[in-house]
Design goal:
6 helices, 113 residues, elongated, single chain, mainly alpha
Amino acid sequence: MLAAWHACFVAAKRDADAKAAAGDLAAVEHLGLLELTEIARRIAWATTIRAGRLAAMLRPDVSDTACLSGVTDAKWWIDQRDDVDAPLLARAAAFVPLQGQSVDPHDAMLCAT
């Protein structure tokens, strides 16, 4: 009986997570995000993390997420998944140039604040 309940709970949780991920991906689709790089399993997980974080940050009190849009390393997104907004923005501003991408200095300043 307990095993059946657990299986049902897990299935419902996976379904809810999939619906939330689909909503997050739709919310950030207009950002034209770059493809993530890494192994396929990390890319799948990091894509969900990135979409969720960016969707949550599409608020009036977050002025710019351009630096986050430039981070394409899947492992970076996984490693930063529990950061709150300000440290996440600061880490992204520092990381994007390390990936060999250019970042507008204005965007980096916005991300670091």
